[in-house]
């Protein structure tokens, strides 16, 4: 990227070479001494919780494009301290900065976009596999909701940008990790209660709220469950 392009940073143009960013991070992660890696880790762990919901200027927004290129974010050891907190910070952005980030995502190269999608798909799988080991249920709920909502945001961007095929959002392992019939029933009951009263039901994360991550097998199970529920509802009403 030419120097003058850097100064073109705007709500529509990030003005950053993400390939160079990735190369730089890879060099830093493999450099000696290893204490440098630890310092970077500590700095990021301290930085992310302090990211504001309304960044001071558009250039400050570039941090959300830069951080995922660091190999630390792709290491499952740091999902809970880096990757998932970053998703939470992104989902806390106010409307205008959130729109800026969506604009930038629509312009990144397909390879970057796919890496970001794969990163948060892996984070969802990590949480589903380790659900019982997270001692504080609210943390699990907050983390997986942030990851799923970020994937939902990326899916929305992709519908216009067409960076990747829609099936790249699928998480095939889901059918073996959750009971889709039970998950859909929880979603169905939650939706029904919201319409009657302002959700007297305890908040719970239902993956059926994010059908774009379901492959054909999972979608079939979900539709079969819906058909059974609709029949039961009709019987009760008749």
Summarize the structure.
This is Probable E3 ubiquitin-protein ligase HERC3. By secondary structure, the chain is mainly alpha-helical. The chain has eleven helices and no strands.
Describe this structure in words.
- The chain is built from eleven helices and no strands.
- Helix 5 packs across helix 8 (137-161) and helix 7 runs antiparallel to helix 8.
- It has helices at residues 3-6, 18-30, 35-47, 63-66, 79-91, 95-105, 110-129, 137-161, 174-177, 180-196, 216-237.
- With 238 residues, it is mainly α.
- It has two domains: 1-168, no CATH class; 170-237, no CATH class.
- The longest helix is centred in the middle third of the chain and has 25 residues, at 137-161.
- This is Probable E3 ubiquitin-protein ligase HERC3.
- It comes from Notechis scutatus (mainland tiger snake).
Strand content: under 5%
- The count of helical stretches stands at 11
Oligomer: single chain
Shape: globular
* Secondary structure: helix percent: 55-70%
Keyword list:
238 residues; mainly alpha; 2 domains
Secondary structure layout:
Layout lengths: L2 H4 L11 H13 L4 H13 L15 H4 L12 H13 L3 H11 L4 H20 L7 H25 L12 H4 L2 H17 L19 H22 L1
């Amino acid at each position: 990227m030419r120097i003058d392009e850097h100064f073109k940073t705007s709500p529509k143009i990030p003005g950053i070479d993400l390939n160079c960013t990735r190369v730089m991070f890879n060099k830093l992660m493999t450099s000696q001494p290893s204490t440098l890696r630890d310092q970077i880790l500590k700095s990021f762990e301290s930085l992310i919780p302090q990211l504001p919901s309304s960044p001071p200027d558009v250039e400050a927004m570039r941090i959300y494009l830069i951080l995922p290129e660091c190999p630390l974010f792709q290491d499952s050891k740091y999902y809970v301290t880096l990757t998932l907190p970053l998703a939470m910070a992104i989902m806390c952005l106010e409307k205008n900065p959130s729109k800026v980030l969506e604009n930038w995502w629509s312009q990144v190269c397909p390879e970057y976009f796919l890496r970001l999608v794969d990163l948060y798909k892996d984070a969802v799988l990590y949480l589903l596999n380790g659900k019982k080991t997270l001692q504080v249920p609210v943390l699990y709920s907050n983390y997986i909701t942030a990851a799923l909502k970020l994937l939902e945001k990326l899916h929305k961007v992709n519908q216009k940008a067409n960076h990747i095929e829609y099936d790249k959002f699928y998480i095939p392992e889901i059918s073996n990790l959750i009971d889709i019939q039970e998950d859909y029933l929880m979603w169905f009951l939650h939706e029904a209660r919201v319409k009657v009263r302002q959700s007297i039901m305890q908040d719970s994360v239902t993956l059926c709220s994010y059908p774009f991550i379901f492959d054909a097998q999972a979608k079939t199970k979900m539709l079969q469950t819906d058909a059974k529920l609709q029949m039961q509802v009709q019987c009760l009403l008749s």
